[in-house]
Amino acid sequence: MGTKNYRHNSFTLNGFTLVELMIVAAIIAILATIAILAFQSQILKGNDARRRADINRIKIAVEEYEKDHSCYPPSVVCGVILTQPIYPYLNNVPCDPVTKKSYAYEPSCSVASCCPSWYRIYANMDYKRDPTLTPGIGPGSAFNYVSGSDNAP
Questions:
Q1: How many domains does the chain have?
Q2: Please, are residues 82 and 117 in contact by the beta-carbon 8 Å criterion?
Q3: pLDDT value at position 7?
Q4: Along the 153 residues of the chain, how does pLDDT read in single tens digits?
Q5: Is beta strand 145-148 parallel, antiparallel or unpaired with respect to 104-107?
Q6: CA 30, 32, 38: angle at the middle one, nearest 5?
Q7: Is residue 5 included in any domain, yes or no?
Q8: Does the residue 6 lie in any domain?
Q9: Each residue of 62-79: pLDDT tens digit?
Q10: For residue 3, is it within any domain?
Q11: Residue span of the structural domain in which 65 resides
Q12: Buried (b) or exposed (e) across 88-101, using 16+ Cβ within 10 A?
């Protein structure tokens, strides 16, 4: 009859051992972690670029409003359509891409009957190593980026 070859103390099969599979899984996990860390700063920079573009769109609409009304709008809120003072100039005021909240709009006066002579728009940028950021500015010192009218103090 034929000879039988038994291995009693071995877990070797016709494939990979459990230790080999665990090593491969660990290497894949390490490479995935490195990739995530490398691209995370690019994601933050992309969100910040979107914020700057949104603020620029708001600024253009606010400046067009000022040309027609000789003062800046008293408020600008994201997501509100038709009831915004800048509706004809900007159909939909953009919101922050991450928090989905309005950018902080600060006119020179907040009373409804006054005519603001300047404005500022504040945002919180995510990529903190940007040298153009100034931490602790704006209402409540909660923002790190500001843009506004040329005559804003």
A1: 1
A2: no
A3: 54
A4: 555 555 555 555 567 889 999 999 999 999 999 999 889 989 999 999 999 999 999 999 999 999 999 999 988 888 776 667 788 888 889 999 999 999 999 999 877 678 899 999 999 999 999 999 999 999 999 999 999 999 888
A5: unpaired
A6: 105
A7: no
A8: no
A9: 999 999 999 999 888 887
A10: no
A11: 18-148
A12: ebbeebbebeeeee
Report the alpha-carbon distance of residue 47 to residue 128 in Å, rounded.
Answer: 12
pTM of the predicted model as reported, rounded to 2 decimal places:
0.75
Instruction: Confirm whether 2 is domain-assigned.
Output: no
Q: Is 79 left (phi over 0), alpha (psi -120 to 50) or beta?
A: left
Instruction: Pick left, alpha or beta for residue 92 (phi over 0 → left; psi -120 to 50 → alpha; otherwise beta).
Output: beta
